[in-house]
Write a structure and sequence with these properties.
This protein has helices at residues 29-34, 46-53, 94-99, 131-144, 159-171, 188-194, 214-222, 237-240, 243-250, 252-255, 270-273, 323-338, 343-352, 379-390, 412-425, 439-447, 461-471, 489-503; strands at residues 56-59, 66-68, 78-81, 104-107, 124-127, 149-154, 176-178, 202-206, 226-229, 262-266, 282-288, 294-301, 306-310, 314-318, 361-365, 368-372, 398-402, 430-434, 455-458, 477-481. The chain has 18 helices and 20 strands. The chain is α/β, with parallel strands linked by helices. It binds adenosine-5'-triphosphate and magnesium ion. Magnesium ion binds next to helix 5.
Length: 513
């Protein structure tokens, strides 16, 4: 609880301006995103901040023109919101933020209990009960004050891919902002909303969850005009309990749309389809091989891309592999059309979109193609990756390297085994599993009839690299995939480096992120 009101006092001196060179560069892309330049116009007066957050203005000061949560970034003229996480307390960095030029702070305690604060005069201070909640309220207020159309994207897989593609397509047609990286949580969503400026016409916002109710909260903050739900699958089961729990959670996005919104759903995913019943908005379905508002037929894979017939009329070639990416493209076309982008223009832009990093990203060395899908893994995205490389035409073997899928709760072993069986049934030539947690994938493949000689279980990334280097020949295709924390990206980078060294090619992993 916030303590009773204290008298508001005027700040004694202007905020200390941080020297340009004093910015520290922590290096992580995520941190860079957190401090993106957020010129917010003029609404961030200390009293407006107190009002939006339900806090107390303890010390007056000059208005801010941006919001930051990271004292290592450019804080000049920004309000620093001191977030408390599992491992960090932003209150320990208030003094640093002020030294870097922050002109005010949002904190959850009296200034004399913030380290270094009393000595730094000039900044305004707003005290709130919960700084995380305050950041959400500021994001909500900022969104309310701007007329940009907001597209919210959720689903168990494909959020970032669809967000990146839609962001790219819209940006060519109108001033557009989009979530940096996978900034999709209670911090990332408001930070994305702060990037909206008066001239912004579209904001593409990724909305994720790890606990029940989070999507409802974030939907209320972002108030999307358009919602996309890509799919419902076994992911984050530790937080959400079951696939039914995932569906319930994802449905909070469609449920939060207004009457005049548009809800774009995967019509081939039963749980997604049922979300049509919970929204007041218009609904459009995206389907493959069935007529729908947006549909594709004749899906065909090429070495690095996929073609399909759109709406039964025109053939479209996408420079990305996989049926799952056809769905993603259809979501993009549906949302872009709603925002007035002509179909020809949207298709042209889609044909140029870069791959989202380490999402089935093809990398070649020594005539071997490594599909780097090491960004993350759950059963649905693993199935999508297997089907994609199984479907690529041409000679050469199709090899799959899997690490463990994390956060799958009680069904984890069964889900790993099922994936093994699916991998065999897809016609994969060889399966390598890395680490004890991934063993049930091999067990499932063997039980489904995959020959023992085609299944290899290895303990670590070094062993896997050695085995692959012995096995692989020009023309082969390799899918590498695991949950992010397994770190299979190191295998991809090491393998490409070693393959490149075979032929003297430059390392295609260099500069990868
Ligand atoms: N529509 C889809 N269906 C199934 N898998 C997909 C789909 N789109 C992308 N994928 C695969 O899912 C994985 C993650 O992709 P992406 O980062 O786009 O998803 P995300 O939902 O943003 O994930 P996260 O929850 O980790 O932020 C990649 O392996 C990608 O190839
Ligand atoms: Mg993401």
């Amino acid at each position: 609880m916030v303590a009773p009101m204290k008298p508001v006092v005027d700040a004694a001196a202007p905020a200390a301006a941080g020297p340009e060179g004093s910015r520290r560069h922590g290096g992580a892309a995520a941190r860079g995103a957190a401090s993106q330049r957020t010129a917010l116009g003029t609404w961030l007066t200390p009293s407006a901040i107190a009002k939006a957050t339900g806090g107390e203005l303890l010390v007056r000061g000059r208005s801010a023109d941006g919001v930051t949560t990271d004292s290592r970034q450019d804080c000049r003229r920004k309000v620093f919101v001191a977030l408390k996480g599992e491992h960090h307390d932003g209150h320990d960095h208030v003094a640093a933020a002020l030294q870097q030029g922050a002109c005010g702070v949002v904190v959850d305690r009296a200034p004399d209990r913030v380290p270094g604060m009393p000595g730094l005069a000039g900044a305004f201070v707003v005290r709130v009960a919960d700084t995380g909640e305050a950041l959400l309220r500021l994001g909500q207020e900022h969104r309310r004050r701007h007329r940009a159309k907001v597209v919210g994207i959720t689903g168990s897989c494909g959020k970032t891919t669809t967000k990146e593609w839609l962001g790219g397509v819209l940006a060519r047609a109108m001033p557009t902002v989009r979530s940096p990286g996978s900034y999709n949580n209670r911090v990332g969503v408001p930070l994305t909303l702060f990037s909206i400026r008066p001239e912004t016409r579209a904001a593409v916002v990724e909305i994720g969850t790890s606990a029940p109710g989070e999507i409802g909260t974030l939907t209320a903050i972002a108030r999307p005009d358009i919602a996309i739900v890509t799919c419902v699958a076994a992911a984050h089961l530790q937080g959400l309990g079951s696939v039914a729990g995932v569906a319930r959670e994802k449905s909070l996005l469609p449920a939060g749309l207004g009457d005049d919104g548009l809800c774009i759903l995967n019509g081939d995913d039963v749980q997604c389809r049922e979300m049509a019943a919970v929204t007041r908005a218009r609904v459009q379905f995206v389907r493959i091989d069935h007529a729908a508002d947006w549909f594709a037929t004749d899906v065909q894979f090429h070495a690095f891309g996929t073609s399909f017939r759109l709406q039964g009329e025109r053939t479209v070639t996408l420079p990305r592999l996989g049926t799952h990416n056809v769905y993603n493209a259809l979501f993009v076309l549906a949302a872009a059309a709603e925002l007035g982008v002509p179909e020809d223009q949207a298709l042209q832009s889609l044909s140029d979109v870069p791959p989202a990093a380490r999402r089935l990203e093809p990398k070649c060395a020594a005539g071997i193609t490594v599909f780097d899908d090491t960004y993350n893994m759950n059963p649905a995205s693993a199935r999508a990756g297997v089907l994609a490389i199984a479907g690529t035409p041409g000679p050469g073997r199709r090899v799959v390297v899997f690490g463990e899928m994390l956060e799958l709760g009680a069904d984890s072993t069964a889900l790993h085994r099922t994936l093994g069986a699916e991998t065999h049934r897809a016609g994969i030539d060889a399966l390598c599993v890395v680490g004890a947690g991934a063993r049930p994938i091999a067990d499932g493949a063997l039980a489904a009839g995959m020959p023992a000689g085609a299944v290899m279980c290895l303990d670590g990334i070094g062993d896997a690299q050695g085995w692959l280097l012995q096995q692989l020949r020009a023309g082969d295709r390799v899918l590498c995939k695991a949950s992010r924390r397994v770190g299979l990206d190191r295998l991809v980078d090491g393998l490409l480096h070693a393959l490149g060294a075979r032929t003297g090619e430059p390392n295609p992993a260099a500069g990868a992120h």
